[in-house]
Design a protein that fits this description.
Chain A: Keywords: Membrane, Transmembrane, Transmembrane helix. Chain A: It holds the Pfam family DUF6691. The complex is a heterodimer. Chain A is mostly helical. Helices cover 66% and strands 1% of the residues of chain A. Chain A has helices at residues 2-22, 27-34, 43-63, 84-100, 104-112, 116-139; one strand at residues 39-40. The radius of gyration of chain A is 18 Å and the shape is globular. By secondary structure, chain B is mostly helical. Chain B has one domain (11-142). Chain B has 6 helices and 1 strand. Chain B has helices at residues 11-32, 38-43, 53-71, 85-101, 106-115, 119-142; one strand spanning 3-4. In chain B, helix 5 (106-115) packs across helix 6 (119-142). Chain B is globular, with a radius of gyration of 17 Å. The chains are: A mainly alpha, B mainly alpha. At the A-B interface, helix 1, helix 2, strand 1, helix 3 and helix 4 of A face strand 1, helix 1, helix 2, helix 3 and helix 4 of B. Strand 1 of chain A pairs parallel with strand 1 of chain B, so a sheet runs across the interface.
């Protein structure tokens, strides 16, 4: 598991670096993209575009493999259904994103930069995620964290 | 008509940063066999069956640690948060519950999901983009904040 965690750390660092280089750790920049009726900053579309260009190649390679290059099981989402909870949850997320200009990744980077408002946002986001777990446990007590993933 | 904010538009930095994000997602996928979805990685730590704690914490530590590493080489860029504390708390709750309920955020659905051509992630991405645009429109242009 050590190797797995080292590559996770590196992936997190490169991800964070990408967010900083692109300016997306700054909510004002994100809101500049979401404000299409004001002075519109299309930068976020270029961030998504750049990431997806690399992602398309990676997933094309991954699709033909059952094990990763380090020999770990490929864990791809097994749920293909477009359910109400997918749309409702995503819409809730979008409202929060539009209010603050933070989504989870940039908020964690801004927290690491010592931004006190990011600390408050992340604390509240974690509280929201915990509330979700409590609600899920009440609704379906048998589910663990394998939810949505293929079993090995 | 759409007015482009040319003075704020940074296509080069945006594309470079995007390629790095793609590289991070690609390495995580091809080395560890997982989707780099940040809300899922964080949310998994809060799940009842807390498995794989170490790698999740490692990934998140990488994200949180990036600015410290950056400081060794350069100054941090300014971070501007206009939202007040009550708004941040409401937004945080919505992002926390919403991303878990919808099984993903900008990274999991937006970057990884679209890269794997998942119709589910396309629907999710269109949903959060739509309400994101709408929310900013309401706040900035209807409420005039």
């Amino acid at each position: 598991m050590m190797k797995y965690s080292v590559t996770s750390l590196l992936a997190g660092l490169i991800f964070g670096l990408g967010l900083m280089v692109s300016g997306m750790a700054n909510p004002e920049k994100v809101l500049g993209f979401l404000d299409i009726a004001g002075l519109w900053d299309p930068s976020l579309a270029f961030v998504m575009g750049g990431a997806i260009i690399v992602g398309l190649v990676a997933f094309a390679v991954a699709r033909r493999r059952t094990l990763s290059f380090l020999g770990f099981t490929m864990k791809m989402p097994a749920n293909n259904r477009i359910e109400p909870r997918l749309v409702i949850g995503s819409m809730m997320f979008g409202i929060g994103w539009g209010i603050a200009g933070f989504c989870p990744g940039p908020a964690l980077v801004a927290l690491g930069a010592g931004e006190i408002k990011a600390v408050v946002f992340v604390a509240s986001m974690v509280a929201g995620m915990m509330a979700f777990e409590v609600i899920e446990r009440i609704k379906r007590p048998s589910l663990g964290d394998t939810r949505g993933y293929q079993k090995n | 008509m759409i007015d482009i904010a040319w003075s704020q538009f940074t296509p080069g930095a945006a594309l470079t940063g995007g390629l790095l994000i793609g590289l991070a997602a690609a390495s995580f996928l091809l080395l560890n066999g997982r989707i780099a979805g940040i809300s899922g990685i964080l949310g998994g730590l809060l799940a009842p069956a807390r498995r794989d704690i170490l790698w999740r914490v490692a990934f998140l530590a990488g994200l949180v640690g990036t600015p410290s590493l950056w400081l060794l080489f350069s100054e941090l860029q300014p971070i501007q948060v206009d939202a007040g504390y009550p708004a941040l708390i409401v937004a945080g709750l919505l992002v926390g519950i919403g991303t878990r309920y919808g099984s993903g955020c900008t990274s999991g659905h937006g970057v990884c999901g679209l890269s794997r051509l998942s119709p589910r992630s396309l629907v999710a991405t269109l949903s959060f983009m739509a309400t994101g645009f709408l929310t900013v429109f309401v706040i900035r242009h209807l409420m005039g904040v």
